[in-house]
UniProtKB/TrEMBL annotation:
The keyword Repeat applies. Signal peptide: none annotated. One of its GO terms (biological process) is SCF complex assembly. The lineage of its organism: Eukaryota, Haptista, Haptophyta, Pavlovophyceae, Pavlovales. Residues 1049-1207 form the TATA-binding protein interacting (TIP20) domain. This is TATA-binding protein interacting (TIP20) domain-containing protein.
Length: 1239
């Protein structure tokens, strides 16, 4: 439809024409191709605004919908004209016109493009301030609402007007009109996110002065507004309010105390005092710490505040509390009728007039905030919190009871917090009887919501104290049975009750529930027949748990009569298993349950077993259920019952072998595991043809395309060889060995696959499989090294071949082993370089497995001769072989090695001998090393002092680390003493040795190392750059591998760590390269190590961090070099998806948004090279990702600066398409399609 026709019909007298024309315009505006000339833009804007005054409400509604679309497509001048006319209608129009114009103006402001926002907002703001002073309350309210949107959406555009806005808003908090006060509070909350420190402090001072006056006896209505304003500040800019917390808390406490004496008149004041306290606790957890006891008393007092209801439990009086009944709407600070004059009740009291529940709800939320914000203080609060919460289970208002349950759940969950678990678990166990008793009484209630909440709490208890409910299960069984059988029970209640029951069965000794099964089983089976698929699936899972509990350790006899329980459970599960017209979740649950039943009580099924196996076979052939069925058959095959699967085995083998050719990796892997289980326990049912089929089908999976599959296939082949080497041996030679040898040459070969490969070769030799003699396999292995790629063979390939040769020798006879050693010993001095390398690696690996002391002199002579080889690879391989051989006979070879290292005669080979010593120390058993530690330590420290090379220092540090792990009592004092050594290299080696010790350390270090951690990490303040760098690397290693070592020493370490993240000007210098100068930052690697350590500490012990200081260093890193920015982005991404970090991040968004904005809008020079362009694109992509993850946090839109950055920079302009792509990627990752952490 043409634009002129639309305009004509929009001006028609006929309402229907106007409606249809406006509807057509709405459709046209949504098209990307819709274009207008300047005159058409003007006419459309005028007509759209004119229709806001249309007599037909539906036309008005369509006109409002057109405005945000129109504002994106017209020129800035027309946008300003639209805003001007809309504001005039707000200010001077009639009531109906004012309301619709206000809505229209707010929709325009929400969609105004960045190009038009500046002039539009700067012109509108002074007029809004003028409108606030209007004598009409309706105009004032509308102007305040619009100003709130301006402050939220465009904080950076009203900077020059901030003093005037502040001066205009603060008096409105004392307005006699509740509607005005309500909007003014919201505006103050939005304003303070963008105020500079000076103006912010003035606002806080003003609010505090008014609250102080109110505490001394001011009017409740205005006092409530000022308290609400403080609450708004806490929610919107809590991090900035932290410095004022000490001044705020006491007036709030006094106001709450004063409100108690005013009865119902003070309820609203008490409620908002508690809401403000909750906001302070949630947003300023560190600053609020000194007032925890007082706030806890406030919450505990008011949680039982119920002046209109007499209860013996609450007879000691009240206080009040309530953490925020306002929801998420920032404008909803005051009830609509808050300003109405109190009416005389005039008659009997009604519960409908009782608002004290708001106070109790607020108190419950304050207590919840205290638990969440200060988990380390929960053990101290537990003694007073737990009884108070249990007493409030009798709460008569259901919404308050739900909050009490939620607070109790947080209290129970605190027992899992690393900082509180040790102290909390004993406290929780001591109160377990009272808690379960109180919950049991609540299960007698009729309310479904109450009973649902009780089961949620019971699940938390069972999870927090595995096995701890054993003494309390009996009284809980009847309420569970009632919840499952009661026809009035909701599906959600049944699912929660079933979940609790399953958790109890799985986490407690089976005997706990044996006496209650007669009551439980019929109720569960009734749920199996439930029509709702989620109830049915959960009931089937409970049946699986019951089957395990009936006989937890088959084939041991069950203490129960299986014939009483197994048949009814089987019939119920079988009915679901045989039905085809049901949900996928039910199908999978029935398959898993039947599999577990057969695995645990299959011998009690009798003739039913064959029928069940046939149905499972049918499900195995179904593409939808085959993966689940494969896993069920694996459970059946691994059952210790050794059930006679009979003819099922042949069909099962055929199906499983066919699945090895499927594209689904999960299906192939599950099939390999199931085949392995069948081979291990049921090989007697395999015919020769079956074995041949399995070997042929597993062979294609032996490739480096999937190393996990290859390892599983090798394990399956090993089980076949062990079951029948005579039949399988020739098949392995024909089908398996060729791909194994190909895999052996792969650089991707991993330890798990190598271990299975070694076991297979060892078994082939020991079983003397037909056609696979020791000599045959050895020649094939050595042929891999001499293949077409031998000239470019990697060290990885040689190492893999040597490991397999050593495994082969383990299975061979003594004569064959000695002959092989002689063969390789001769190969050291003869042949080409590749043959020498292979011989040295093989000798080394064989020497690890067997004692070659008898050939000490000959081996020493041959191996040390390689040190003079012109090839560096041969020298290194010789040192490796010498160290490995020595590790197999420490007493014989170690004294010789020590003597040669200390001897000046061998000085040219000094470094190689050290490498040999390192291999000996790393490969030898700890018990073999311990007697020699006192000889090795002085030698290693002497090498540090005499050798300046970094390579020598690294070798020495690695040796010292292994010695520390092997003999901590002897090595730790020596290393500890070197921490104060005058030479910086010695200090660096001492702290680096700790890093190597931690990686492979056994629990023997746990008793001695934690006490010394503070001394090691004190080197973060060392004057030497390399020492600090080594200490940072060690800190990351300890945080990753031995987090418990940092528990006590982390607080003094963190300030030193944060100091290392700062960029230091004295470490930056320029290097003159002739035509240009190059800037070198010697501190870059140090900062990278520091940020990597922060990343590791966040992963391992985030609960011990003061997150605000942590985030402050990340904000500084966002302005650093490229590598540092990427690290900071990664850490912020991790924090953004962790709920525990959300409050601290919300409080710091203001400091993060500007460096993020500079990163994503940054540009390159025109002459940038390809590498610079790629790095820049990666950095922008990383910045967009972290921006979106931060924006997804609940409450992120409450930070006005960050919200403006997202709306104006990311969702508009040139970055919009890239940002939407990132959004789709991250949202896809949340659905399992990708990893949201990938940068």
């Amino acid at each position: 439809m043409s634009l002129s026709l639309i305009l004509d019909r929009m001006a028609s007298r006929d309402k229907d024409f106007r409606y249809m024309a406006t509807s057509d315009l709405l459709v046209e505006l949504q098209k990307e191709t819709f274009k207008m000339d300047s005159e058409s833009e003007r006419k459309l804007c005028q007509m759209s605004i004119k229709l806001l005054s249309d007599a037909a409400g539906d036309v008005q509604g369509l006109a409002v919908k057109c405005l945000p679309l129109l504002v994106r497509k017209v020129q800035t001048a027309h946008v300003e004209e639209m805003v001007d006319r809309l504001f005039q209608m707000v200010k001077t129009g009639k009531d109906e016109e004012r309301d619709i114009s206000s809505i229209g103006l707010k929709t325009v402001l929400a969609e105004v493009p960045q190009s038009a926002a500046g002039t539009t907002v700067r012109g509108l703001t002074p007029r809004l301030l003028d409108g606030i002073s209007s004598t009409s309350m309706e105009v004032t309210v509308c102007c305040l609402e619009i100003l709130h949107d301006v402050l939220q959406h465009f904080p950076s555009l009203v900077t020059s007007d901030l003093p005037a806005i502040k001066a205009k808003l603060l008096p409105e908090l004392a307005s006699s009109r509740a509607a005005v006060r309500k909007r003014a509070v919201a505006c103050v909350g939005a304003l303070c996110g963008s105020l500079p420190e000076g103006l912010y402090a003035e606002v806080v001072d003003h609010l505090l002065a008014q609250v102080e006056a109110g505490a001394a006896g001011g009017a409740n209505a205005t006092l409530t507004a000022y308290i609400q304003a403080i609450c708004a500040l806490g929610r919107g800019s809590g991090f900035r309010l932290g410095s004022h917390v000490a001044r705020i808390v006491q007036p709030l406490l006094r106001c709450a105390e004063r409100s108690t004496a005013q009865g119902e008149a003070g309820m609203e004041v008490a409620e908002h005092c508690l809401q403000a306290s909750e906001a302070l606790v949630a947003r300023c957890p560190d600053e609020i710490a000194p007032f925890i006891t007082q706030l806890l008393g406030l919450g505990l007092g008011y949680i039982k505040f119920d002046p209109n209801y007499a209860d013996d439990d609450d007879a000691d009086g009240g206080g009040g509390g309530g953490g925020g009944g306002g929801g998420d709407d920032s404008m909803d600070f005051e009830d609509d009728g808050a300003a109405d004059d109190d009416d005389d009740l005039g008659g009997e009291y009604s519960d409908d007039d009782d608002t004290s529940w708001k106070v109790r709800r607020a108190a419950a939320k304050l207590l919840a905030a205290l638990i969440s914000a200060k988990p380390d203080a929960v053990p101290d609060m537990f003694a007073s919190l737990c009884p108070a919460l249990l007493a409030r289970f009798a709460e008569r208002e259901e919404s308050v009871k739900a909050d009490v349950f939620a607070t109790t759940r947080l209290l129970i969950q605190a027992s899992g917090s690393p900082v509180a678990a040790t102290a909390m678990l004993p406290l929780l166990r001591a109160e377990l009887g009272r808690i379960t008793g109180a919950l049991r009484r609540q299960l007698a209630q009729r309310s479904m919501k109450t009973r649902f909440g009780v089961f949620v709490l019971l699940r938390e208890l069972a999870g927090a104290l595995p096995g701890g409910l054993a003494a309390h299960v009996g009284p809980l069984v009847p309420p569970v049975e009632r919840a499952l059988r009661d026809k009035a029970s909701t599906s959600a209640l049944r699912i929660e009750a079933l979940g609790f029951l399953r958790l109890v069965i799985d986490s407690h000794p089976p005997t706990v529930l044996h006496q209650h099964l007669k009551l439980i089983v019929p109720a569960v089976l009734a749920c199996v027949a439930d029509r709702y698929y989620k109830v049915c699936a959960e009931a089937l899972r409970v049946c699986a748990s019951i089957a395990r509990a009936l006989r937890p350790n088959p084939p041991e006899p069950s203490p129960l009569a299986l014939g009483e329980y197994v048949p009814p459970i089987y019939e119920a599960v079988s009915t679901r298993l045989g039905a085809l017209d049901q949900d996928q979740e039910v199908k999978e649950a029935s398959i898993i349950t039947m599999g577990l039943m057969i695995a645990h009580v299959g011998d009690a099924l009798g003739e039913r077993l064959g029928a069940a196996l046939l149905v499972l076979l049918d499900r195995l052939r179904n593409e939808i259920t085959r993966l689940t069925a494969v896993r069920a058959f694996e459970a059946i095959a691994t059952s210790p019952l050794n059930l006679d699967l009979g003819p099922t085995v042949a069909q099962l083998l055929t199906e499983l072998c066919s699945y090895l050719r499927k594209s689904s990796r999960a299906l192939r892997h599950a099939s390999l595991l199931a085949l392995h289980a069948l081979t291990t326990r049921h090989a007697r049912h395999f015919s020769a043809a079956h074995k041949a089929e399995v070997v042929r089908e597993l062979a294609p999976t032996l490739s480096d395309a999937d190393m996990q599959l290859a390892a599983s296939a090798l394990a399956l082949c090993l089980s076949l060889v062990e079951a029948d080497a005579k039949v399988v041996g020739p098949l392995v030679s024909e089908h398996v060995l060729p791909p194994v040898l190909t895999l052996l040459a792969s650089p991707l070969l991993q330890s798990a696959a190598i271990a299975q490969m070694q076991a297979l070769l060892r078994a082939l030799v020991r079983t003397n499989a037909s056609g696979l003699t020791f000599e045959t396999i050895l020649s094939q292995l050595l042929g891999v090294a001499g293949g077409a790629e031998a000239a470019t063979g990697s060290k990885q390939r040689l190492s893999s071949i040597a490991l397999c040769v050593a495994a082969l020798c383990e299975g061979a006879s003594d004569a064959q082993r000695l002959e092989t050693v002689e063969r390789f010993k001769k190969g050291i001095g003869n042949g080409d370089q590749q043959s020498q390398l292979l011989a040295l690696h093989c000798l080394g690996q064989i020497g690890r497995q067997m004692d070659l002391s008898a050939q000490r002199d000959a081996l020493l002579s041959a191996l040390t001769a390689t040190f003079d080889s012109p090839a560096e690879e041969v020298k290194g391989a010789g040192a490796f072989a010498l160290g490995c051989i020595a590790s197999g006979a420490v007493r014989t070879f170690l004294p010789v090695l020590i003597g040669q290292i200390a001897s000046a005669q061998h000085a040219p080979h000094h470094y190689l001998l050290l490498h040999a010593l390192k291999e000996l120390i790393l490969s030898a058993d700890d018990t073999a090393l311990q007697p020699h530690v006192s000889q090795i330590l002085p030698l290693l420290f002497a090498q540090t002092e005499s050798a300046p090379e970094d390579s020598v220092k690294t070798v020495v540090a690695e040796c010292l680390g292994k010695l520390l792990a092997a003999a901590p009592a002897a090595a730790l004092p020596e290393l500890h003493a070197r921490l104060r050594h005058d030479a910086a290299p010695m200090r660096a080696i001492a702290v680096t040795a700790l890093r190597f010790a931690i990686v492979d350390a056994s629990s023997g270090l746990d008793t001695v190392l934690p006490a010394t951690m503070g001394d090691f990490f004190a080197l973060l303040s060392d004057a030497d750059l390399k020492v600090r760098h080594a200490t940072l690397l060690t800190l990351s290693c300890v945080a990753h591998n031995r987090t418990s070592y940092l528990v006590e020493c982390l607080p003094p370490i963190l300030p030193l760590l944060y100091e290392e993240t700062a960029k230091r000007a004295e470490l930056v210098h320029q290097v003159d390269l002739g035509p240009f100068k190059h800037t070198v930052d010697d501190g870059l690697e140090l900062r990278k190590a520091a940020y990597e350590a922060m990343d590791t500490i966040l992963d391992s012990c985030a609960e011990r961090l003061e997150l605000r200081a942590f985030i402050a260093r990340l904000a500084a890193g966002l302005t650093d070099d490229y590598d540092i920015k990427l690290l900071c982005h990664l850490v912020l991404c991790k924090m953004a998806v962790r709920p525990a970090c959300t409050p601290a991040l919300l409080g710091s968004l203001d400091t993060l948004c500007e460096p993020l904005r500079k990163t994503v809008v940054g540009t390159l020079k025109d002459n940038a090279v390809k590498q610079e362009i790629e790095r820049h694109d990666e950095l922008v992509r990383s910045g967009l990702r972290v921006s979106y993850l931060l924006a997804k946090m609940p409450g992120a839109d409450g930070c006005v600066k960050f919200d403006e950055y997202v709306r104006m920079t990311l969702k508009q302009g040139k970055l919009q398409a890239r940002y939407e792509l990132i959004m789709n990627e991250v949202d896809g990752a949340d659905d399992g399609a990708a990893d949201p952490m990938v940068l």
